[in-house]
């Protein structure tokens, strides 16, 4: 059987940046890059929970409003949780797309995958459709779950203003005036409710946890059972 190629986020990131250079004003990219670098300097420890900690249980609506409980899915196997910013974020869409492409391998380990953002369910549905996702995309409207797992941040006024010039209002995707966003991160929760893997590529949201790292951690978890 031919082994499926594992996508490499960093390789596809380089292509994305080329596309963004052609699609966005250079001044806008400079402002956003400076903001992401600022957050990386300020948030030195983006994870609130680490491997070995107990995972907070939660129940959140999915893209069609159905309540999804972490505990229910843990009865089936490990659960991967990835926190992302929103459907308006090209880096999030790229990361979720790469995770979709390893979903078959994730399932082969008996695991499930959740993607969580502060977006309302309608925008979670847009995320699923845009990226052809076959895993649960959940709405954490006030970051109540995210704040238990990761640090949250607010984009600089310059970054937000630059996006508004191009017709993107981050907060309009969320409930009310919520402007806080979760630091992108990936957790793997084992069936006993313990965190087996916890990683963020940093508060610089342009960078993400590689799909290969997720699969390696899943393999180690299931092999050691």
Describe the protein in words.
GO terms for molecular function: thioredoxin peroxidase activity. This is thioredoxin-dependent peroxiredoxin. One of its GO terms (cellular component) is cytoplasm. It catalyses: a hydroperoxide + [thioredoxin]-dithiol = an alcohol + [thioredoxin]-disulfide + H2O. Belongs to the peroxiredoxin family. BCP/PrxQ subfamily. By secondary structure, this protein is of the alpha/beta class. The chain has a single domain (9-223), classed as Glutaredoxin. 40% of the residues lie in helices and 16% in strands. It has nine helices and nine strands. The strands form three sheets. A five-stranded mixed sheet has the order 5-4-3-8-9. β8 (185-189) and β9 (195-199) form a beta hairpin.
Can you describe this structure in just a few lines?
Residues 49-223 form the Thioredoxin domain. It contains 9 helices and 9 strands. It has 225 residues and is an alpha/beta fold.
CATH homologous superfamily annotation: Glutaredoxin
DSSP strand content: 15-25%
Rounded to the nearest angstrom, the distance between the terminal CA atoms is 25 Å
- Class from secondary-structure proportions: alpha/beta
Query: How confident overall, as mean pLDDT?
Result: 92
- Structurally, the number of domains stands at 1
CATH class: Alpha Beta
Q: CATH architecture, please?
A: 3-Layer(aba) Sandwich
**What is the spatial order of strands in the main beta sheet?**
5-4-3-8-9
Largest sheet report: 5 strands, mixed
What portion of residues is helical?
Answer: 40-55%
Number of strands: 9
């Amino acid at each position: 059987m031919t082994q499926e190629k594992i996508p490499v986020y960093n390789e596809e990131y380089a292509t994305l940046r080329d596309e963004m250079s052609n699609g966005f004003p250079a001044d806008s990219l400079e402002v956003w890059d400076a903001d992401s670098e600022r957050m990386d300097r300020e948030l030195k420890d983006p994870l609130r929970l680490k491997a070995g900690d107990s995972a907070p249980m939660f129940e959140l609506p999915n893209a069609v409003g159905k309540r999804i409980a972490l505990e229910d899915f843990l009865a089936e196997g490990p659960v991967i949780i990835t926190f992302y910013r929103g459907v308006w974020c090209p880096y999030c869409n790229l990361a979720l797309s790469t995770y979709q492409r390893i979903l078959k391998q994730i399932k082969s380990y008996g695991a499930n995958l959740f993607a969580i953002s502060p977006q309302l369910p309608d925008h979670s549905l847009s995320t699923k459709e845009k990226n052809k996702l076959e895993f649960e995309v959940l709405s954490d409207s006030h970051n109540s779950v995210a704040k238990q797992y990761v640090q949250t941040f607010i984009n600089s006024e310059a970054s937000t203003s630059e996006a508004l010039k191009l017709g993107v209002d981050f907060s309009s995707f969320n409930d009310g005036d919520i402007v806080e966003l979760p630091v992108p991160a990936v957790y793997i929760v084992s069936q006993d409710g313990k965190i087996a893997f916890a990683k963020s590529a940093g508060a610089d949201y342009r960078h993400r946890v590689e799909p290969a790292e997720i699969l390696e951690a899943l393999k180690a978890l299931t092999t050691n059972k």
